[in-house]
Design brief:
Number of strands of chain A: 10
Largest sheet of chain A: 6 strands, mixed
Number of helices of chain A: 14
Shape of chain A: globular
Largest interface: A-B, 17 and 16 residues
Strand content of chain A: 15-25%
Strand order of the largest sheet of chain A: 1-2-10-7-8-9
Helix content of chain A: 40-55%
Number of domains of chain A: 2
Oligomer: homodimer
CATH topology of the largest domain in chain A: Rossmann fold
Distance between the termini of chain A: 42 Å
Chain lengths: 311, 311
C-alpha cells in the first residue's frame, strides 16, 4: 500500500480516534543508550490501538453493509474496539464471547453498546458462533488482525509517530496476531526511507518467531504468557508482509516483560499493559546494537487489571 | 505577589523544570458532570510539583549562599526535589533523613546527588539535625512548604494551567504543608479574574480544615492517611494566604481517596500518588455544586510504590 492510500486511511479514521501523544524520558534514554519515542496508544480511545483498525474496517463498508452491522469473536481489546467504533459510526456490533470471559470484559463491551452472544471458549466454537451471527443477521465479519482494512488502520499509529519524528531509525512493536506489526511495516516503508521495524514476542508464545524461520505460519501449542494480547497466531493477510519486511523478531521471557512494564510504570508514570512492555523489553534486550539511534516504541495499550499486578 | 513577579519566578525556573501536559478525559467529564483539566505534575522531574519550589528557592540564593549549599529535613518528595534541583543548578544539598526511612527513598536522594545525614525520626530530632548541618556547613535551610520562594515556585503549575486554559472556574489542589495550595491561590488571583481555589484534605489529617475554622494553625495529633504527602501541618508563611483566599477545604475519607486514585489509573492510564487523588476525590464529592463548570485539578505527583497498592 502506498503513501497516499495510507494517508487516505488516516484521514478517514481521524475524526473517530485520538491523535495520541509521543512521550520521551531522559531516564529511559540513559538506561537504554537509545533516543526513545513512546507512541502512547494506551491513551487511545478504549485504551488500545485496536480502535484504529476496527474503525477503518467499519468505515470501509458500504452503507448497505453498515446497515446490517459487524461481527467478530474476541474476548480482548478488539471486542471493545469494534463495539466502540461501531457505536461511533452508528452501526451494530455483535461479539461472540466465551461464556467464561471475565465479567469486566463483558461489561466493557456492553458499555460500548456491543451485543454479546456467548459461546464455548475454544476457537472452533467461537468461529462457529460468529459465523452463525453472520448468517442470521447479514453482519460483516471483521477479523481482529487478519484483515487488510484492520492492518491499514493499525498502521496509522506509526504514520503519526513518523509525522512527529520523521528521522526514526527503528520502530518497535509487539507481535501477536500480526495486525499491528504488518500495519507498522507498511507505514514505515511508505513514510520513511530508513526506518526499520523490529518486533518483540513472548518466548512462551513464539509462533511469529518460528514462522519467520520456517517460512510458513506456525501455531502456538500453548501460550502461557502474561502478555494476554499476544497469544494469537499470524494470518495469511499479515504474514506475507511481516515475512518480507520485518527486520527482526526478538523473543523476551516473562521476567523481561514484567521488568520492562514496571520500568515504564515507575519512570514514565503511565499505565501500559504487558503486551506493550513486550516491545520495550525487546528494545532493552537489543539496546547494544542500536546505541545512539532514534527508536519509536508503540505502547499498544493500557487495559490492565490494576488490582492484579505481576509486581 | 503580583502577576509580573510571578511571571519572573516562572521564567527563572523554566529551564530546570518540565512544562507538564494538561490531560482531559471524556469519561471522567461524564462521571463528574464537570469539564476537567488535569495538570500532570506526576510527569514533572522527579515525579512531583515539589521540583518547582525547590528550584526557585535555590535560584533565589546569592552566589555566596549557593556555594555553601542547601539543607532540608524531609523523608518524602521534597528531599528528592531539593537534591535534584541542587544538582541541576550545581549546588550541594544536605538532607536530614530519619534513619528508618525506606531505603528506596534514601537511594533516590543519593541518586540525585544529595548528601544524607541520618537522624531519629521525630520532628525535634529532624529539625536539630538540619540545624546542625546548617551551622557546620553554612548551608541555607529550605523548608518544604513554609517558605515564600517555595510557595511561589509551586504556584507556577497553576500559572501554566491558566495559560493553557484561561477560563477555568476552579482549581482543585490537595493541602498538606500548604505550599502548593498557597502558591496556587497566588497564581489564580494574579492570572484570573474568576478562578477560585478549592482544596482537598484527608479526614485523617484535617489540620488545615480545622485551622480555617479556628483561625489559627492547628496540628494533627495523628495523621493515619494513605496520602503520605499530606500528613504535615501548615506554616505561618502559607496559612495567612490560605485563610484569606481559599474558597473551601473539602474533607475526604480513605476510601474516597482510594476510589479516586483507582478511577484516574484505570480511566486515564496514568499513575498518580494518593495525595493527587485527594484533590480529585474532593472534586467528586463537590461535583453537584459545580455542574458544567471548568475545573483544573493539580495532580501533584506520581511517586508511589507500584508493588504495594491499596487496590
Amino acid at each position: 500500500m502506498n503513501k497516499s492510500d495510507l494517508q487516505k486511511v488516516h484521514r478517514r479514521i481521524k475524526p473517530y480516534i485520538h491523535r495520541t501523544p509521543v512521550l520521551t524520558s531522559q531516564l529511559l534514554n540513559q538506561i537504554s543508550g537509545v533516543d526513545l519515542f513512546f507512541k502512547c496508544e494506551n491513551f487511545q480511545k478504549m485504551g488500545a490501538f485496536k480502535m484504529r483498525g476496527a474503525t477503518n474496517a467499519i468505515l470501509n463498508l458500504t452503507k448497505a453493509q453498515q446497515s446490517k452491522g459487524v461481527v467478530t469473536h474476541s474476548s480482548g481489546n478488539f471486542a471493545q474496539a469494534l463495539a466502540l467504533a461501531a457505536k461511533s459510526v452508528g452501526v451494530k456490533a455483535y461479539i461472540a464471547m466465551p461464556e467464561n470471559a471475565p465479567q469486566v470484559k463483558k461489561d466493557a463491551v456492553l458499555g460500548y453498546g456491543g451485543i454479546i452472544r456467548e459461546c464455548d471458549s475454544n476457537t472452533v466454537a467461537r468461529e462457529a458462533a460468529a459465523d452463525k451471527i453472520r448468517q442470521e443477521t447479514g453482519a460483516t465479519f471483521v477479523h481482529p488482525s487478519n484483515d487488510h482494512d484492520v492492518i491499514h488502520g493499525q498502521g496509522t499509529a506509526a504514520i503519526e509517530l513518523l509525522e512527529d519524528y520523521p528521522d526514526l531509525d527503528y520502530i518497535f512493536t509487539p507481535v501477536g496476531g500480526g495486525g499491528l506489526l504488518a500495519g507498522t511495516i507498511l507505514a514505515a516503508n511508505a513514510f520513511s526511507e530508513v526506518c526499520k521495524v523490529i518486533a518483540g514476542e513472548p518466548e512462551n508464545a513464539d509462533d511469529a518467531y518460528r514462522s519467520l524461520i520456517s517460512g510458513k505460519i506456525e501455531l502456538n501449542e500453548s501460550a502461557n504468557t502474561i502478555a494476554d494480547g499476544l497469544r494469537t497466531n499470524l494470518g495469511d493477510r499479515n504474514f506475507p508482509i511481516i515475512k518480507e519486511y520485518v527486520e527482526q523478531i526478538i523473543l523476551v521471557n516473562e521476567q523481561d516483560i514484567i521488568d520492562a512494564m514496571k520500568l515504564i510504570w515507575e519512570r514514565m508514570k503511565i499505565i501500559v499493559e504487558p503486551s506493550s512492555a513486550v516491545a520495550f523489553a525487546a528494545l532493552l534486550k537489543h539496546k547494544d546494537h542500536i546505541k545512539g539511534k532514534k527508536a519509536g516504541v508503540i505502547l499498544s495499550g493500557g487495559n490492565v487489571d490494576v488490582s492484579n499486578l505481576p509486581f
